[in-house]
């Protein structure tokens, strides 16, 4: 009974807040007001609070610009969590646009949807990412290209860092900062999740979205650690595969450290 009461309260609050903030965000997008960059952070913080997602930040967001964040990806929750921590936009695969609920939210946050099968469109989208980073926006890349089970980092695709290279000519110092980020779901109701319970938060993709969302809301107490690592400078002549490998190594170490509760070299 209490669970359903809490779910009902959360749904009402989120709907009321959305009814107030989303029209304003749509207006900001229509006229490209800079407020569109900051408004989503407040909405996501409120949503995370009412979903019972407690966020712990380790390290600091890089202050230099242009900035790309490269994060591991295990759940749609990652988007809410990262958006609650910083004013970001996402680089997403085109299929996300058609997701129920979150597809619309992604559009309202002005995510860039990559059409991987259409190379001409991909070039335009990479240019858009580059221009927005050069303008000071923080873009989030999930270089695995899909979601994992939350226990490990999948293979990182170096080709997805092409947007960083494309942004170089548009930056005054000819450098793009790529900061590795690890998002680790660590506890449920204050108790360590472990590999067995981590699927409560993780969403590998073969689970329907709406039932998974209902399970998250019903749970009501998930702790997540967001770890910011040392940024890598991407310059002209930088080897993209080396950057990819360095970023992957740092994400993997941070993720393992938070999941195991000890430092990993």
TrEMBL record:
Domain of life: Bacteria
Pathway: Lipid metabolism
Residue intervals of the Phospholipid/glycerol acyltransferase domain: 67-186
GO BP annotation list: phosphatidic acid biosynthetic process
One Gene Ontology MF term: 1-acylglycerol-3-phosphate O-acyltransferase activity
CDD domains xref list: LPLAT_AGPAT-like
Name listed for the protein in its UniProt record: 1-acyl-sn-glycerol-3-phosphate acyltransferase
Source organism per UniProt: Rhizobium lusitanum
């Amino acid at each position: 009974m209490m669970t359903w009461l809490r779910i009902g309260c959360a749904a009402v609050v989120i709907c009321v807040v959305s009814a107030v903030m989303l029209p304003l965000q749509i207006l900001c997008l229509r006229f490209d007001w800079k407020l569109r960059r900051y408004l989503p952070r407040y909405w996501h913080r409120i949503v995370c609070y009412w979903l019972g997602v407690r966020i712990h930040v380790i390290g600091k967001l890089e202050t230099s610009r242009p900035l790309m964040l490269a994060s591991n990806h295990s759940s749609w929750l990652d988007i809410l969590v990262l958006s609650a921590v910083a004013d970001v936009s996402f680089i997403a695969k085109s299929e996300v646009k058609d997701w129920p609920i979150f597809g619309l939210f992604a559009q309202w946050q002005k995510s860039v949807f990559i059409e991987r099968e259409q190379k001409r469109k991909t070039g335009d989208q990479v240019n858009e990412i580059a221009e927005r980073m050069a303008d000071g926006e923080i873009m989030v890349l999930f270089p695995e290209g899909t979601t994992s089970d939350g226990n490990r980092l999948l293979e990182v695709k170096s080709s997805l860092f092409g947007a960083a290279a494309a942004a170089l000519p548009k930056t005054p110092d000819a450098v793009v900062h790529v900061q590795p980020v690890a998002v680790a779901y660590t506890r449920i109701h204050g108790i360590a999740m472990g590999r067995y319970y981590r699927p409560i938060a993780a969403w590998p993709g073969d689970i329907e979205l709406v039932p998974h969302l209902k399970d998250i809301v019903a749970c009501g107490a998930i702790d997540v650690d967001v770890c910011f690592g040392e940024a890598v400078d991407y310059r002209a002549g930088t080897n993209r595969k080396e950057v990819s490998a360095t970023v992957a190594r740092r994400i993997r170490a941070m993720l393992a450290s938070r999941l195991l509760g000890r430092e990993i070299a």
